[in-house]
Structure formats: C-alpha cells, structure tokens
Amino acid sequence: MAQSEHPRIGWIGAGRMGLQLATRLVEAGHDVAIYNRTKAKTAPLVERGGTAVDSPADLADRDVVFSIVSASKDLLDITTGDGGVLTAEAAPSLLIDCSTVSVAASAEVRAAAAKRGCEFLAAPVSGNPKVVSAGLMTMAVSGPDAAFEDAKPLLELLGRGVTHVGPGETARLVKICHNVFLGVVLQSLSEITVLAEKGGTNRAAFLEFLNNSVMGSIFTRYKSPALVNLDFTPTFTMPLLQKDFDLGLAAARELEAPMPVASAAAALVASAVGAGHRTEDMATLLLEQARRAGLELTSEDVEVDDGLGT
C-alpha cells in the first residue's frame, strides 16, 4: 500500500452497506472512486465528492480497493472476471473485501491477487446501514499482519471495532459464526417475546426490561422497534440469513463441531423463507413464532429507542 496519509481508494459495491461505508471514507477526506453494476446507485457518493467509474478494472491503479458484494460469484466476477480489478495492466497494492462469501472464493481471489503482487485482506463487516451510520460497525480481518497494520487507519474510519483474527481466510469463518449466532439470538428473542406477550405483558414493556438487564445488547435493543411495532423494513433479509446458516453448518460438518441449537434455528429460518418471508427483515421470525403459538400480533404503535442515537 502506498505510504500516504491519504491513499487513493477504489470502492466496488454501492448497495446499502457499501454506500454508507464508502461515504465515511469520503467524509474523512479521502479520494474515493466507486464502481457499481447499476451506476445510478453511485450518485449519492458522487454528490459528496466521490468519482464514479465504468468497470472494476478502472480502479486498478488505485492504492487500495475495497469491495462489498452479495455473493461469492460476484466477488470472483469483480476481481478475476471480464473487466475485473485484477485483470487490468496495473494492480492495486492492497485489495480489501468486506463481503460475506465462502472460504473457497476468498482463497481463489487471494491467490489471484498474489500473482499480481497485490496483498489481500478478508474483512467481512458486521452491521447494517443504520449501524454503519451510527459508527458502530465491527469488522473481522484476516491476512498478512503487515498488510493489516497498513490498512488499519482506513479500516478504523469505517466503524468502532476492527479485529485481526488470523491468517488467510480465518475472517470468513469468524463472520459466519457471528451471523449464525445472530440468527440463533433472534429466534430465541422471538420465542421469549411471544411467551411474555401470551402471558399478559406487552412487547414494549418486556423488551425494555430485557434491554436494561444484563441480557440486553446492542442487537436486542436495535431490533426492539421492529418487534414492538412490526416494522419489517429490511436491513438483513431471511434468505441472506439462511445462506449464512448453510455456510456455518457446512463448516461445522467439515470441522466436526456439532451445533444442535444452530441446526434447530436453521430449520426455523428455512420454514420462514418457505412461508414467504423473503423480502422483509429477518425480524419476521417473530411473526412465525407467534403463528405457531396461536397468537395474532398487532403493532403496539409506540416509540422505542433503538440505541443508535437516531
């Protein structure tokens, strides 16, 4: 990576998360050029001072290139596919991928980057656009120690917690473990919330109590408005959660690490997807749990603090 306080940055992916993350770098004074398959989605960043380009290869002369895409195939396409950032005459000094993808795809990109003299960090992020905006995004990073130390000042601009978790593709498994736990917690939270309501306590009161107890967390507080007011505007959809459960359970089988609770939660997530909950937020697990309990939910229509200061 170029030894500069303000390396020239390329960014691939202007979805809800990518746009928020790239904006933090622009607002910190960095020169950021961005590529997205649908170019119109880059407009908000361009309005803040970024530059839009026509292909990932147009970012190859940048010092550092970040990427955040939806799936393993997308990562391969934007790096080694036609017009990929690793296919141009030049190559960036450092490639940092913030996506949640498979270990195999990550290792393939790492090998391709090495052939071009480009360091590679796997750096999947944890959070959603609102969490990023609040500065609470966390990130697990794996790859060479020296590359991590070089990139750390940039990574710390993106959120509050940046942890180097090991070599190679270690961060991929760490992120999958995180998301599996997230799904297990949300299913459990849905179960106890339905139990409390069926016993006579409204959801707002129960979750206020829970969030102020030792069992409360940033996550339980953040999800409380959705559970109380049944606002399932998507931040992370059920099919995405199902994908991460599949990856986590596949890793568990390979490493011979039984996960009986996660397996049960995965079946309930799959059932929710089968019931048609595909475009709403994963908090719709609450609706499925209420249905199984014979409870018809309505919005409590009260203001609930999400803990993010927004």
Report on this structure.
The chain has 310 residues and is of the alpha/beta class. It folds into 2 domains: 9-168, Rossmann fold (3-Layer(aba) Sandwich), CATH 3.40.50; 173-292, N-(1-d-carboxylethyl)-l-norvaline Dehydrogenase, domain 2 (Orthogonal Bundle). Helix content is 47%, strand content 11%. The chain contains 12 helices and 9 strands. It has helices at residues 16-27, 43-47, 72-79, 103-115, 129-133, 145-155, 170-198, 203-211, 218-229, 238-255, 260-274, 285-292; strands at residues 9-12, 32-35, 51-52, 64-67, 94-97, 119-122, 125-126, 138-142, 161-166. It has a 6-stranded parallel β-sheet, sandwiched between helices. Helix 8 (203-211) runs antiparallel to helix 9 (218-229) and helix 10 (238-255) runs antiparallel to helix 11. The longest helix has 29 residues, at 170-198. It is globular, with a radius of gyration of 20 Å. The chain starts with 8 loop residues before the first strand and ends in an 18-residue tail after the last helix. The model has no long low-confidence stretch (mean pLDDT 95).
